[in-house]
Amino acid sequence: QVQVVESGGGLVQAGDSLRLSCAAAGSTFSIYAMAWFRQPPGKEREFVAAIDWSLGGIYHAGSVKGRFTISKDLNKNTVYLQMNSLKREDTAVYYCAAARRVMAYDLVSTYDYWGQGTQVTVSS
């Protein structure tokens, strides 16, 4: 089993930056990839970014490319999401997830373990 816990959400203004953290614990040796998803109010959960746990693959959704950056620190078993130039439409609950194997990085069904989510609210 793998446990993932997000932190770092909050209320910011448009144009601000925020960094989310996701700490993994438990059987981290079984992780193939980790990802960030978000769920805006009244909408479905959507892919934001993913990163291979041991290899070098990094993937970002088109809507955040150039503004958000996913990274990892294996010494800390932690994945980060650096969010710059935040917009109101980035307001959502952000979820961290871990996958033991990957067919498609951007599918919710790929991921086996999920955190509880952290709220990010961007005001204008």
- End-to-end separation in angstroms reads 40 Å
- Unreliable runs: none
Q: SSE order, as H and E?
A: EEEEEEEEEEE
Helix run count: 0
Shape verdict = globular
Percentage of helical residues? under 10%
Mean pLDDT, all residues: 97
Could you give the count of β-strands? 11
Assembly type of the chains comes to single chain
Strand content: over 45%
Radius of gyration: 13 Å
- What is the makeup of the main sheet? 7 strands, mixed
Q: Specify the structural class.
A: mainly beta
In words, what does this structure look like?
There is one protein chain. The chain is mostly beta strands. The protein contains no helices and 11 strands. The strands form 2 sheets. Strands 2, 4, 5, 6, 9, 10 and 11 form a 7-stranded mixed sheet that branches. A hairpin with a 5-residue loop joins β5 and β6 (58-60). It is globular, with a radius of gyration of 13 Å. The termini are far apart.
